[in-house]
Amino acid sequence: MKKIIETNNAPKAIGPYSQAVEANGFVFTSGQIPIDPNTGKLLNGTITEQTIRVLKNLEAILAAAGCNMGSVIKTTCFLKSMDDFAAMNEAYSSFFAIAPPARSTVEVARLPKDVLVEIEAIAIKS
After folding, report:
1. Is the pLDDT of residue 126 over 80?
2. CATH topology for 2-124?
3. Where are the beta strands (DSSP E) in 9-107?
4. d(CA 20, CA 111)
5. Is 0.90 topped by the overall pTM?
6. Would you list the domain boundaries of the chain?
7. Hey, is 48 helix, strand or coil?
């Protein structure tokens, strides 16, 4: 069985997808971009600011699923430019200081709303 995860503490889905889906003890989040869930507005900041907002959005979705950042076993990071990798990595590491998850990071031609970063996660329920 699958369970749809929704929270008002992260941006609402703007298309035919869910913020996250729980299935067989795993939580799969949709990719998050730097939208402030309180205002619904895009954060047009630096890569560091955008990464922090994205990870806070993921944190809220995971909390709604009964998980936390320590539950994350895999992330995929999408960057507009690999030139931003070091700054994204520094902000990212502050959320995963202990036992970080497996990760892939790729540069993409374009992201929704022309943001600099999008991140998705897979977590395990404990």
Report:
1. no
2. 60s Ribosomal Protein L30; Chain: A; (3.30.1330)
3. 20-23, 26-29, 72-79, 102-107
4. 19
5. yes
6. 2-124
7. helix
Q: Quick one: tokens of 25?
A: 């003890």
Give the residue-averaged pLDDT of 51-71. 98
Place of tokens 């507009």: 80
DSSP for residue 99: S
Structure tokens at 42: 């895009």
CB-count exposure of residue 111 (10 Å: 0-12, 13-18, 19+): middle
Phi, psi values for residue 95, rounded to 5° = -95, -20
Burial class (CB in 10 A: 0-12, 13-18, 19+), 47: buried
64 contact partners, CB below 8 Å, separation of at least 6: 5, 6, 7, 9, 10, 19, 20
